[in-house]
Amino acid sequence: MTQSHKADKHLTLVAILHIVYHSLALLAGLVLFALLSTIGCLAGDPQAARILVIVGTCLAVFFVGLSIPGIIGGIGLLKRKEWARILTIVVGALGLVDIPMGTALGVYTFWALMQDEAVDLCRANGD
User: Fold this and answer.
1) What is the pLDDT along the chain (127 residues), one digit of tens a residue?
2) Would residue 2 be called left, alpha or beta, if left means φ above 0 and alpha means ψ between -120 and 50 degrees?
3) At what angle do helices 101-113 and 82-95 cross, to 10 degrees?
4) CA–CA separation, 54 and 13 (whole Å)
């Protein structure tokens, strides 16, 4: 198996992992919003309901804001776009603080996307 073929497999795996990981985070944000909003409505206290809806909305916006770039980067990386390689490296760096899964994904992302073969594969496809 050639180095280029190995790099191609790693690019595909990194892309899929980012799409799945960030899709799950997106889903978690939406579930938290629905859960907190529902609890607030069931509480019977209008002030508690407002607070829980605000907290749920903030959490949902936070998770969506972090997830969308990871999903977009993963999709672009599947198409071997150079901008997606750079975006995925940035997303991987931000994910390093999410111990342990984000750290593992970030380290693997750096390792796979910083190799010369990966850079060449993405540059060969152009933008």
Assistant:
1) 687 889 999 999 999 999 999 999 999 999 999 999 999 889 888 998 999 999 999 999 999 999 999 999 999 999 999 999 999 999 999 999 999 999 999 999 999 999 999 999 999 876 5
2) beta
3) 150
4) 37
- pTM value surpassing 0.85: yes
DSSP labels for 20-78?
HHHHHHHHHHHHHHHHHHHHHHHH--HHHHHHHHHHHHHHHHHHHHHHHHHHHHHHHHH
Residue of 18, 2, 11, 7 whose CA lies nearest to 68:
18
Contact 95, 106 (CB under 8 A): yes
Residue showing tokens 């770039």? 69
CB-based contact 71:94 (threshold 8 Å): no
Q: Helix or strand or coil: residue 97?
A: coil
Q: What does each C-alpha distance from 28 to 1, 25, 36, 61 come to in angstroms?
A: 39, 5, 12, 11
